[in-house]
Amino acid sequence: MKIYISVDMEGITGLVDHTHVDSSKLNYERGRKIMTQEANYVITKAFETGCEEVIVNDSHSKMNNLLIEDLHPETQLITGDVKPFSMVQGLNDSFNGAMFVGYHARASMSGVMSHSMIFGVRHMWINDVQIGELGFNAYVAGYFGVPVIMVAGDDGAAREAEALNPNITTAVVKESISRSAAISLTPLKAGELLAKKTEEAIQNIDNVKPLTPPKNPILRIEFANYGQAEWANLMPGTEIEVGTTIVRFQAKDILEAYQAMLVMTELAMRTTFS
């Protein structure tokens, strides 16, 4: 049994605003410690439940948040920026299942720090399916035939995951009050929940099917302002839909669509005024 774990930060227990997840802010060091502890609860239970190999991908911001010295010693950690496949770097068909920890709701939805890659994105679609980071990452896993067996984060992330795959196991460590407030479990209680749900997810692995992506998908991203759309449109093969801030791209497969999304959002971040 080989398990892949992608760990984001906005869905971690007790973290509710940018001061917890921005490395320049005062609560960040507390946030990354809780993030590391939370990842460890899942990793440890995965090994205890029979997994022989666990690969963890740090998936937040500069992707160097997890404290490697505090992780389970048998873990392998993918860390650092720039990664060709970002939040799903290293995921391939050798894995039996994937888990997403610390995840959040997509942009324009209710949830703690909800967003999709950057705060300039309003909506993303693959063909007619609206997705966020969670859905896009699940599609990449599905491309390799790997089911996402567990999602841990806030209640918004859980709802999103269950809509994509009703058989998935979810672990809700906090419930949104607003985009920057939540009622949260303590780290210890969250750890107990995560360990329980990790074991359940592994035992349920045969009942969860991969989220199979469409062939030749059309990626569409709606940006918050036209300047962002203009920057994204500098990527060859894209076009701005008339009268909108939506940029579309015809991809040959979901992997090309994913990398197109990374390039488009990176370009869009160069716009600083609305």
From TrEMBL:
Does the keyword field hold Hydrolase? yes
Query: What GO molecular functions are on record for this protein?
Result: aminopeptidase activity; metal ion binding
Organism in which the protein naturally occurs: Mesobacillus subterraneus
Protein's UniProt name: D-aminopeptidase
One short Pfam name that applies is: Peptidase_M55
Binding site residues for Zn(2+) 2:
8, 60, 104, 133
Determine if Hydrolase is one of this entry's keywords. Answer: yes
Q: Cross-referenced Gene3D superfamilies, in alphabetical order?
A: Dipeptide transport protein
Q: Which UniProt keywords apply?
A: Aminopeptidase, Hydrolase, Metal-binding, Protease, Zinc
Binding, Zn(2+) 1: 8, 10
| Catalytic residues (UniProt) | 115 (nucleophile)
Domain of life, source organism:
Bacteria
